[in-house]
Amino acid sequence: MIERLDTFAIELPSWGFADTGTRFGKYVQAAAASTIDEKLADAGMVHRLTGCCPSVAVHVLWDFPAGRSPTQIADVAEREGVRIGSINPNLFQDQVFKYGSACSPDPEARAAADEHIDRSMAIGRDVGSSALSLWFADGTNYPGQDDILQRKRRMEDALARWHQAMPDSMEMLVEYKPFEPAFYHTDIADWGMAAHFARKAGPRAKVLVDTGHHLPGANIEHIVSFLLSERLLGGFHFNDRKYADDDLTLGSIDPYAVFRIFLAIRIAGERHGFETRHVGYTVDQSHNLKPKIEAMIQTATTAQELFLKAQMVDLDHLVRAQDAMAIVDAERCLRDAFATDVRPALREWRRARGLPEDPLEAFRESGYEARVGAERQARRGGNPASSSYA
Amino acid sequence: MIERLDTFAIELPSWGFADTGTRFGKYVQAAAASTIDEKLADAGMVHRLTGCCPSVAVHVLWDFPAGRSPTQIADVAEREGVRIGSINPNLFQDQVFKYGSACSPDPEARAAADEHIDRSMAIGRDVGSSALSLWFADGTNYPGQDDILQRKRRMEDALARWHQAMPDSMEMLVEYKPFEPAFYHTDIADWGMAAHFARKAGPRAKVLVDTGHHLPGANIEHIVSFLLSERLLGGFHFNDRKYADDDLTLGSIDPYAVFRIFLAIRIAGERHGFETRHVGYTVDQSHNLKPKIEAMIQTATTAQELFLKAQMVDLDHLVRAQDAMAIVDAERCLRDAFATDVRPALREWRRARGLPEDPLEAFRESGYEARVGAERQARRGGNPASSSYA
Amino acid sequence: MIERLDTFAIELPSWGFADTGTRFGKYVQAAAASTIDEKLADAGMVHRLTGCCPSVAVHVLWDFPAGRSPTQIADVAEREGVRIGSINPNLFQDQVFKYGSACSPDPEARAAADEHIDRSMAIGRDVGSSALSLWFADGTNYPGQDDILQRKRRMEDALARWHQAMPDSMEMLVEYKPFEPAFYHTDIADWGMAAHFARKAGPRAKVLVDTGHHLPGANIEHIVSFLLSERLLGGFHFNDRKYADDDLTLGSIDPYAVFRIFLAIRIAGERHGFETRHVGYTVDQSHNLKPKIEAMIQTATTAQELFLKAQMVDLDHLVRAQDAMAIVDAERCLRDAFATDVRPALREWRRARGLPEDPLEAFRESGYEARVGAERQARRGGNPASSSYA
Amino acid sequence: MIERLDTFAIELPSWGFADTGTRFGKYVQAAAASTIDEKLADAGMVHRLTGCCPSVAVHVLWDFPAGRSPTQIADVAEREGVRIGSINPNLFQDQVFKYGSACSPDPEARAAADEHIDRSMAIGRDVGSSALSLWFADGTNYPGQDDILQRKRRMEDALARWHQAMPDSMEMLVEYKPFEPAFYHTDIADWGMAAHFARKAGPRAKVLVDTGHHLPGANIEHIVSFLLSERLLGGFHFNDRKYADDDLTLGSIDPYAVFRIFLAIRIAGERHGFETRHVGYTVDQSHNLKPKIEAMIQTATTAQELFLKAQMVDLDHLVRAQDAMAIVDAERCLRDAFATDVRPALREWRRARGLPEDPLEAFRESGYEARVGAERQARRGGNPASSSYA
Q1: Structural domain boundaries enclosing B300
Q2: C-alpha torsion angle, residues A210, A211, A214, A220 (rounded to 10)
Q3: Is residue B386 part of a domain?
Q4: Integer distance in angstroms from the first to the last C-alpha of chain D?
Q5: Residue B297 in 3-state DSSP?
Q6: What is the CATH number of the domain that holds C213?
Q7: Nearest to A138 by CA among A124, A120, A156
Q8: Is the dihedral angle over the CA atoms C214, C216, C221, C223 positive or is it negative?
Q9: Which helix (H) or strand (E) holds D191?
C-alpha cells in the first residue's frame, strides 16, 4: 500500500504563497512571496521537504511579468526543483470583466477573454504545461440581470473555440462553483453544467472539482464517482470549508470526507477499471492567518495521510459486505481504515526516500521563513507583498 | 396575456387528497379521501371550481385496487370531469425495497421493480396516460454501504429497459432528490444525474424538477433554463419549502422564486425558441395540517397568479436592458411585473369562463367538505383514512 | 486518560430498539422490540457487552402500558442489568396536538399536555428518574398560521408550571430543533430560545443539545461551550447527519465534529472550572436499515473512541500555542490526538473490566439477534413490531 | 395606513456610496464617492428624492480624516440635508486585529480596540449620534486555534467596559454573524450570543439583526419577534442574499421574507404592546455592480413598499383566524396584503409631500451621476476611489 505514495503528487498553487485575504482585508506576512521567483522558491522548499509536490500551478496575470519569457520562468522553476504545472488564466480582475468574461454581453469583454486565453495557451505551450485550468467568475447578481441561455451559448462557443486552439499537450479543466463572486447565478454552477460545457468543448476538456465549491450537504464523493465513470473528471482543487468557499486547509474541518473522496477514486479505478491516473490534485487555499509555507506542508502531509488511509480499506471485504447488504460490516471497512494511525508508515516512507520524517519540524528548523521574511521585507522597502487577489 | 391562462393546466395528485403526515405521525381529517373514487371526486371538485386542473396524477400502489380495471378507474375520472394524468409507480413501500429498487444489490428487489413498472406501464396504456413519473427512494444511509457505480449501472440498465418497453404514447419522467429517505447518498441526487439517466434511457425520457428537491441555495430557474435548452425538461412537481423537502403549498414561502421559474420557461420558449408546451405541472404536496381540498384550490390559484405575473414581464424592454448591461432596469422589469396585482384580471378570466371568481369561497359555500367528511367517516366506521404514505 | 472511560456513560433510548422509519415507510426487522420488556432486554444486552450503557431513556406513551406500574417496569430494567434513565413525554402523537401542545391555541391541547406531563413526572418519581426530557413538535407550517409571541408566552407558562410541579430529584431538559415536523417555524428553534425557556422555567431546567438539530454549518461545539459557561447545558441527544435531522449513527458522517464536542466539554471543565459531570449523553437514533442492537453497540463504542481521543489532546501544549497565537501548533494538538488509534487502549480497558474486547463480534457470536428475532416474530404472529413513531 | 410612512425612516450607509467589491476584486465606478463630503452629498441626494433617508451611518476609520473635527463633518451633513446617524467603528482592518479585536489573545489588539472605541464614542458624542453599532470580525479559522470561552469572557469584559464609558445619548448595537471573515467560529455567531453579550453589557445594549447574517433556512421574523418581546432588538442592517452574506439589494431575492419581518414588528407592537419605535433600519449593502445611488434609491423605495404591504394586513381578521386555527384564512391575510399593489398609494404619498413620484426616474433626469462622475474622476486624476473595504 505504502508504495502507492510514490506516485501520489500534489500540485502547489503559486498564489498560495502570496498575501491573500477576504473582502474585509488582508493580514500581511513578512515572508509572503510577491514575485514568481519567490513563489517558486517557496514551492521548491515545500517539495524538498515533502517529496510529493513536484509542480506549481501558475497564475498568468500575476506570475508572467512583462520582460520575462515563460521559458525563463520555467528555468527558475527547474532551478528550484519543481516544474510548471497547470496554467490558470485570470478572467475576473480586469475592469472589462465587470459583467463576465466569456459570457459577458459586452463583446469587448469576450474579446479580452479570448486574448488572455490565447496568451495563457501560448505560455502553456512554451513551458510544456499539460493543463489549462479555467475558473470563471461569470454570473449575475440579480434576477433578470442577463439572459441565462444566451450566456450559456456564449460559454459553449468560447470553450469550443479555445479547445480547438489549445496545444495538443494540454487538457482543459472546467471548474464549477455555485456562487461568489456572483450572487444570483453563476454560469457554471454545478458539476452537471461543467460536464455539459466540457463535453461540448471537446474530448480534451474535463471537469475540475474544487472541494469547497458545493452547496451545503452535497455529496462530493458521489459526484467524483459519477464523473470518473463518465471519463469526465480532470482533477481537484483541494481545500476545506465549514460554511461556503472558506479555502481552509484540506482536512482541517472534515477529514473523513476527504478520505471518502480518495476512496471513491480508488474504487472507480480498481473495482470498475476507470482511468484515474491522470486525475490531478492541486492545492487551492487562501491562508489569511496561517503562515503560508507551513500551511502548504500541512496540506501536503494531510493529503498523504488521508490518501493512505483510503488505500488501507480492504476492498475485497468491502465488496463482500456490500453484496450481502451487510451495512454495518461494509461501513466498518471504512471506519477501520480511517481509524488506523498511518503516521508511522508515512515517516518510514519518508525516511526511505531521504526526506525529513516530520517535514513541518524540518521546515521550522531550517530557519527559512525568518530568513526570507527579512530579505523580502527589505526588498519591498517594508511594504506588504502585492500579488494576487483579495 | 390573460388568454395564456387558457392553456395553463395544473395536474392534481391523487395522494394529495388522502391523509399524509411526517415521520412523527399524521393528523387525520374527516374529509380525507381513502379510495380512488373519493380522490377523483375531490379532484373533480377542484377542477370544476378552478377550471385549470383537468387531470389527476395517480399512484399505482394505492389507486388501482385488485378487482377494478384501469379503464374502470378512468371512467370514474371521466364522470368526475377529469382524466387520468401521469402514472406514479411506488418503488419504496414494499419491504423488498429496503436497500433500493432498481439499484438494489438484491436481484429480487430489482425484479420486483421491473414487475411493478410493467404493471404501471400497462395501466398507463389502458388509461391513455402520457407520462410515467419515476421517483426513486434508492440510495444509501452510510458511507461504504454499497458500490455507488454499480448502482449507477443498475439504474442505467433499468431505465433503458423500461424505456424500451414503454408504450409509444408515454414519456418517462426522471425525478431527482438530494436526500430523504436515503441520508448518505441518493442514486439520482441532482439534475445532472437525472439528465444523465434520462439521456441514457432514450429519447422519450426527460427530467422532472420537484421544486422542493434541492440543496439550500440552489438556483432552480437556472436549472430549468438549462434543461429546457437541452430539451430535457419534462415537467414539475410543485410545492414550496423553507428547509428541506417540506411539501408546503406552492408559493407560500417564496413566491418570487416561483415567478422566476415561470419566467425562465417563458424566456426559453419566446426568446430562444425551445419547446415548452409539453412541460407538465403537477402539484406534489403533503398537507398534514391544511384542509386538503382548500390547499389544492389555493395552490392552483397561486400558480395561476404567479404564472400570469411572469407573462406580464415586458420581454422587449428586458432584452434591451440586458443588452445594455443596465442591471437596475433589467431587474425592474421583473419587479414591476411581480408587483402588479393580477387578481382582478384573474377574476375577470374566471367570470368569462363561467367559473366562480373566488374558487376558495365557492368551495366553502358549496358545503362539500362537511358533506363528504360526514359520509366518509361513516363509511370508514369512524376510522381514519388509510391510503398513501407517512 | 483511559480511566476516564470508567465514568463515561451513554444512555440508550428504548425507542431505538423498535421499528422506526421515515415518512415513506418502515423496513421492519424480526428482532425489533415491540414491548418495554423486549427493549429493556436489548438494552441490557448492549450494556453487558459494552459496559458503558447503564441506563435507558423511556418514552411514556409507548413504554408504560396500562396495567403495569412504573416500578414494575423499573424492576424489569433492574433484572436486565440497567436502570430507567430520562423520562420522555410524547406531545405530538395524539390528534389533539395537531396545532401544537404547550403552545397550541386550543386549550384542550394545552390541558392534554399538562396531563401527560403530570403522568410523566409521576412515572419519573416512581422510578427515580433524574430527568424529564422535553422535545416539542410545536410550531407552524405557514406564515401567519399563529401568533408567535402568544405561543412563546404559552411555552413560558407551561414550562414554569411544570418546573414547579417537578419532583425534586428531576431536572428538566429543553430540546431545540429548527424544523420538522413543523416547517415554517418551531417554537423552540435554536439554543438561544431553549436557553431562554430554560431560564424562565427555573433553576433545574437546562438545555438539551441534539447533534442533528441545527441548520447547515452551525458550530455545535461553540454552542456547547457557550451553554456550559452559562451553566445551562443539561445533556445531549447523540446522532449524526449529512443533511437535516437524519438520525444516523453517531460519528458515521463527521467523526471529527463529535471529537471537537467532547473536547469542548473537557476544556470547559478542566480549563475553566465549569461543572460538566452532570451532562448526560443519550443516543437518539432511528435505524431504519441497520440492525438495531448492532447499531447501538457501534454507537457506544464510537462514542468511547471519540471521547478518548478528546482526552488525549495535550491541553497544556494547546494553551501555550493558543496564547502564542500559533495556529498551526494549536490545531496540531487536535489533529494529533484525533489521528491516534485508540482502539488498542479501548480493548485493554475492556479486557481489564471483563468485557469482550470487540463488543460487536461478541454480540454476533452470542446468537442473540437470531434467537430473539424468532421468538418475537412468533409472539407477534408474524406481524411487524409496532411501538414508536414513523 | 399610508400615513405610517411618515415616520418610517431608513438610514443610509456612508460606505454604500464608495467602491466596494468581493475578495476577487472591485469594479470601480466613476461616480463612486471617495470622501465623506462626497458620500454625504450622495446621501443627501437620495434623501431629497425619497424623503425617507434622513440620516447617514458613518464609518469611523474612513469618514473622519485627520484634520477635520466631527462637528465639521456634521455640518457638512446638515448642509446636505441629512444628519449623522450610527457610528460604526472598524475593528478588523488594522494588522493588529489579525487574531481578533476585543477577543484577541494579543493585549495590544485589545488595547487598540479600546482606543478605537473611545475615539468612536467621542465622535458619537460630538455629532450627537444615538447609536454605536458594533460588528466584530472576531473569530477563528481552525479548530483549536483559540480558547472560545476565554474569548467569550474578553468580549463580555470589553462590551461592559465600553457600555459604561458610552455617552448617555447613545445605544450600543451588537451585531451577530455566523461566519466570514472568520471561517471556523465567530465570537458572536447568532442572535442568542448577541443577546447574551448585550444583556451582560448593560441596559443600553441591544441586538442588531443583519438580514444577511444567518445560516440557510433561519427564520428571521421569528428571531425578530423573540428579540422584541425581550426588549433586546435595537435595529436592522438591511440587505438580501441567496447564499451567504451576499449584500444584495433589499428584497431583490426574497421580498416576501422582508414583508414578514415588517409584519412581525408590527404585530409585536400593535398586538403585544412591545416598544418598536426605537428600532432603527439601516441599509448595509455592497454594490459591486449596480450604480450605487440608484441602488440606494431602489432599496429605500422597496423598503417602503414592503413596509406598507405589511401595514395592510388586516390584524383583526388575522387574529380571529389564528384563534380559530384556520390556517388557510390566517395565511390568506398575509397573502392578500402582499398581493396588493401599493405603488399607486406610494406615488400619492410622495406627491402630497412634494417628492418626485418616481425617485429613480427623477434621479436619472437630474443628471447627477454623470456630473459627479466627471467631477470626481477629474479630482482623483483618473484613479479609482479608495475608501472602504474590499
Answers
A1: 2-379
A2: 120
A3: no
A4: 41
A5: helix
A6: 3.20.20.150
A7: A156
A8: negative
A9: helix D191-201
**pTM for this structure?**
0.98
pLDDT the model gives residue B250: 98
pLDDT string in tens for chain B (390-residue length): 799 999 999 999 999 999 988 999 889 999 999 999 999 999 999 999 999 999 999 999 899 998 999 999 999 999 999 999 999 999 999 999 999 999 999 999 999 999 999 999 999 999 999 999 999 999 999 999 999 999 999 999 999 999 999 999 999 999 999 999 999 999 999 999 999 999 999 999 999 999 999 999 999 999 999 999 999 999 999 999 999 999 999 999 999 999 999 999 999 999 999 999 999 999 999 778 999 999 999 999 999 999 999 999 999 999 999 999 999 999 999 999 999 999 999 999 999 999 999 999 999 999 999 999 999 999 988 776 655 554
Question: Does residue D244 belong to the interface with chain A, where contact is any CB pair within 8 Å?
Answer: yes
Please name the residue of chain A whose CA is at the shortest distance from the CA of residue C249. A328
- The verdict on a CB contact (< 8 Å) between C183 and B28 is no
Domain count, chain D: 1
ipTM, interface predicted TM-score of the complex: 0.97
Separation of alpha carbons C180 and C144, rounded Å: 18
Chains that touch A (3 or more CB pairs under 8 A): B, C, D
Alpha carbon distance A176, A211 (integer Å) = 10
CB A26 within 8 A of CB A390: yes
Q: State how far the alpha carbon of D362 is from the alpha carbons of B198, D48, D369, in Å.
A: 52, 10, 12
pLDDT band at residue A386 under the 50/70/90 scheme: low
* Chain A contact present for D256, CB below 8 A: no
Q: Is residue D340 part of a domain?
A: no
C-alpha cell at C306: 471519540
Nearest-Cα residue of chain C relative to residue B29? C95
Chain B neighbours among C 95-114 (CB < 8 Å)?
A: 95, 98-99
Distance from CA of A249 to the nearest CA of D (A): 9
Torsion angle defined by CA atoms of residues D33, D36, D37 and D40, in that order, rounded to the nearest 10 degrees: 80
Q: Which helix (H) or strand (E) holds D112?
A: helix D107-127
Residue D56 identity: V
Query: What pLDDT is recorded for position B97?
Result: 97
Is residue B144 domain-resident? yes
Residue C217: closest C-alpha in chain A: A243
> Rounded to a whole number, what is the distance in Å from the CA of B53 to chain C's nearest CA?
24
Position A235 in a domain: yes
